[in-house]
Write a structure and sequence with these properties.
single chain, 209 residues, Rossmann fold, five-stranded parallel β-sheet, two-stranded antiparallel ribbon, 7 helices, elongated
Length: 209
């Protein structure tokens, strides 16, 4: 069986349709919301828990094909397999990526076991065969990540622009950035100014970083 390729997609401002208003649909929405899409939930009955969520439009009525107009992606998460399959068929015709909660075969994409720390997102998938195994791997990642990871990632982003000026050559700069990232992660913190200056001095001398 061919494994799934893990695309990472910018969902900020994208239009997403969630067909279904129960617990499964709620979990999907809760995973998606931190990534900034605009979501519409369509179902005759919608759990009151959805009302606690911001940036979600609730439509208490049956699904209609017109609901897919303008959608960038869709999720079919009802307890009606025939309806879920119908949504998937429509999405296939319109080339809209769709996830079907109870059918890997109908899905164009899968939800991974997800871990997020600031700008870092780790998605683990077993291609739908063993979600519990994917969750186990995700939890092991969580255990080894530094507590100050978000601070480290922000630091590495902040120093990129100064490094472009200090090390104009692309390949040496790439190696230096990779080395700085490893140093920060192993130390569990951003580098001090003294440590950074030493790394830059070593890079200028052509010494291994």
């Amino acid at each position: 069986m061919m494994a799934y390729f893990p695309f990472f997609v910018d969902l900020s401002g994208r239009e997403g349709l969630i067909v279904g208003g129960g617990a499964v649909a709620l979990r999907k929405v809760q995973k998606l919301l931190p990534y900034g899409p605009r979501l519409t939930v369509v179902a005759p009955e919608i759990s009151p828990k959805f009302e606690e969520l911001e940036q979600v439009d609730l439509c208490r009525r049956p699904f209609a094909a017109v609901d897919l107009d303008g959608c960038d992606f869709a999720v079919a998460a009802t307890n009606d397999r025939q309806l879920n399959h119908y949504v998937a068929e429509l999405c296939g015709q319109r080339r809209i990526p769709v996830n079907v909660a109870d059918s890997k075969e109908d899905s164009a994409f899968l939800f991974p076991a997800l871990l997020r720390r600031g700008e870092l997102s780790v998605g683990v998938s077993a291609s739908g065969a063993a979600p519990a195994a994917a969750a186990w791997v995700r939890d092991r990642f969580d255990q080894v990540l530094p507590e100050r990871l978000e601070e480290i990632l922000q630091y590495l982003e902040d120093i990129r622009k100064p490094l472009r000026q200090a090390v104009p050559n692309g390949e040496p700069r790439r190696r230096l950035l990779a080395s700085l990232a490893v140093d920060c992660l192993e130390a569990g913190r951003p580098l001090t100014e003294t440590e950074l200056r030493q790394k830059l001095a070593d890079a200028e001398k052509g010494e291994p970083v």
